[in-house]
Design a protein that fits this description.
The complex is a heterodimer of chains A (379) and B (236). By secondary structure, chain A is of the alpha/beta class. Chain A is 31% helix and 20% strand. Chain A is globular and about 50 Å long. In chain B, strand 2 and strand 3 form a beta hairpin. Classes of the chains: A alpha/beta (379), B alpha+beta (236).
Chain lengths: 379, 236
């Protein structure tokens, strides 16, 4: 008797589009060579003070043009590349597009006067429908906007819809663009690092923001049964504070435990953890607590924020896809900026990459509003 | 459960048997869920379970505060919330006031699944106005639609599953499916779900309390019933 409650969900294709690469492969080569995207910027249109962030440079690389905003163009490039790699028909009623983002087209507020038309243009559903039309997807797209867990929640939402048999395929894509709106907010919170962020290090002093997009195509089509699976996921809320994480990490720990149960595995089956690891003191400490509560303290753990910055609604997707590539290649990536342990709990973090045979990994994310997400992916 | 006699089960330990049983329950014995209560705010009205409880024709910021006073609520944090959170918090507060036996549930047993059309644009506009002068962290923190779920969760200590979706119109079928998945797979035992949307003076919230047991006056939790309530509950 196998535990076939649901249909299995397989990964068909993926893309990471970031300042360090246009494809997952390009990104992974740069990561292996320790090339990150976070740099010092002086842009008076965005900030009176210099800041560190991972931003796209020349806007021209963002084909195509037309009536699409930068946010939409990032997604067009990312979804387009992932589709090229998927030899499955996605232009049917069995396929759904899920868009994950925190702020979408909010930068339009900076250049245009507010009006009824602008309200419609900014609406996340407008962007999602434009993208669905652009690619000829038939079903009404789904939009997930749940702070910094949006990307992971997008994948979990897809997994559940596919498991239930409602659709056969899902394209989950996430993006966020950094503009004055978002940058000024994080500055007002004093949440930004003075340099490149240093997750889990003793000297961590805040986060960097980043731009990027990620796309993952999922299916229950048995043709892909030999590929990597989305095995389980779970969400929780801290019910503690809207802008600060839980003091105990108990709620993220709950989501982690539930995601492992959902996947039918236990702590011993997790080979590495791709943490949220923003580089803020409170976040890193909370995550360290959660990892210890769930018996995962000895499992290799990384944060990719030193490479990408915090890409907000895309973070969960980009970091999951890079981790899938780690699983494929057997290369566990280090945490740039890490030298000495900063958390009161033990963690297995290091700056260096290492070879690692991986069966399963855990992805976690947490965000404003007290939200937590955990996802298990494996062979 | 004729399959309990399956010879393969004889090798199973108790926990495996329990898991199997749960799996069959999911497939074959999905029990119906019920809307125990609903509450809605919009167009100057507050309504619960079909009864209009409060009306006032003041601008939304005043309206929400006067409703809060009228119901004699005491939660000082209410005042610092943006209008989206005030709207959702107030709706949840009144939804749960008489109808909810909190002690029946653990913190992780209750989920929150919400949707709206305008994300947090109402507060985004106010925040961005502040940027020209001094960016306000207290406005910035509300520039995410899911913050309202955080406020409701903090108030009632709900730590279970949650999700926020943006939809052009309330998609009852979609929200129903999300919540039914969580309840039918025993990921939660009760759920606050529905719609909380505001942009300027245009606002509407409809929240449903969904539980697995049928209380008096409860209706079946279905997309059709959600839709019917959504369309009719704010009519005088």
């Amino acid at each position: 008797m196998s535990e076939q409650r649901f249909k299995d969900v397989f990964i068909v294709a993926d893309n990471v589009y970031s300042p360090i690469g246009k494809t997952t492969a390009e990104n992974f080569i740069n990561l292996k060579n320790n090339v990150g995207g976070v740099k010092r910027h002086e842009q008076s249109t965005m900030s009176a003070h210099p800041f560190y962030a991972a931003l796209f440079g020349d806007d021209k690389q963002l084909a195509p043009n037309g009536n699409y905003t930068k946010f939409e163009r990032l997604l067009i490039v990312s979804i387009g590349d992932a589709l090229k790699r998927a030899d499955v028909d996605l232009h049917n009623n069995n396929t759904v597009l899920i868009i994950s983002t925190t702020k979408g087209n909010i930068s339009l507020l900076e250049t245009e006067k507010y009006s009824e038309n602008l309200k419609k243009r900014i609406a996340l559903t407008t962007s999602a429908q434009l993208l669905a039309n652009h690619f000829g997807f038939k079903q009404k797209p789904i939009v997930v906007s749940n702070a910094c867990i949006s990307g992971v929640l997008g994948i979990i939402t897809a997994m559940r819809l596919l498991r239930s048999g409602l659709y056969e395929n899902a394209i989950v894509a996430g993006a966020d663009v950094i503009s004055r709106f978002i940058l000024s907010g994080f500055q007002s919170f004093q949440a930004l690092s003075q340099g490149v962020c240093r997750p889990f290090d003793k000297l961590h002093d805040g986060l960097n923001l980043g731009e990027g997009a990620g796309t993952i195509i999922l299916t229950t089509n048995k043709k892909y049964a030999e590929t990597i699976q989305v095995k389980g996921g779970s969400l929780s809320n801290d019910a503690n504070h809207i802008s600060g994480p839980s003091r105990t990490g108990g709620e993220l720990a709950w989501a982690i435990s539930r995601s492992m149960t959902d996947a039918g595995i236990s702590a011993g089956d997790i080979d590495f953890i791709s943490a949220h690891g923003t580089g803020t003191v409170y976040n890193d400490e909370m995550e360290a607590n959660a990892v210890n509560i769930t018996g995962l303290a000895d499992v290799p753990l990384n944060s990719l924020k030193g490479y990408y910055g915090h890409t907000l609604g895309a973070a969960g997707l980009i970091e999951t896809i890079v981790s899938v590539e780690s699983l494929r290649q057997g290369i566990f990536l280090g945490t740039p900026g890490f030298e000495n342990a900063g958390e009161s709990h033990r963690l297995n973090v290091s700056a260096e990459h290492r070879n690692l045979s991986v069966q399963n990994f855990l992805k976690t994310a947490s965000g404003f509003g007290g939200c937590n997400a955990a996802l298990v992916i494996g062979k | 459960m004729h399959r309990v006699s399956d010879p393969r089960l004889q090798k199973c330990d108790l926990s495996r048997l329990r898991r199997l049983f749960t799996n069959f329950t999911v497939i074959f014995l999905t029990t119906p869920n019920y809307i125990s209560a609903y509450c809605a705010i919009g167009d100057g009205l507050v309504s619960r379970d079909g009864d209009i409880l409060f009306t006032s024709n003041t601008p939304v910021s005043d309206f929400l505060v006067s409703a809060y006073h009228d119901f004699q609520l005491n939660y000082p944090k209410f005042y610092k919330m943006d209008n989206l959170s005030k709207l959702g918090w107030l709706t949840a507060e009144l939804l749960l006031q008489n109808n909810f036996s909190k002690d029946k549930y653990g913190a992780e047993d209750v989920g929150v699944v919400l949707a709206n059309a305008n994300s947090s644009l109402d507060d985004d506009l106010k925040y961005f106005d502040s940027v020209a002068d001094v960016a306000s962290p207290s406005l910035f923190v509300y520039t995410l639609p899911n913050i309202v779920m955080g406020e409701v969760s903090i108030r009632h200590k709900f730590k279970g599953e949650q999700a926020f979706f943006v939809q052009a119109q309330f998609d009852a079928g979609f929200v129903h499916r999300q919540v039914a998945y969580l309840l039918d797979n025993s990921l939660i035992k009760a759920c606050i779900c529905g719609w909380v949307d505001i942009i300027g003076e245009d606002y509407k919230s409809v929240l449903y309390l969904v539980e697995k047991t049928k209380k008096e006056n409860a209706v079946l939790f279905s997309a059709e019933n959600m839709e019917m309530i959504f369309n009719n509950t704010l009519r005088l």
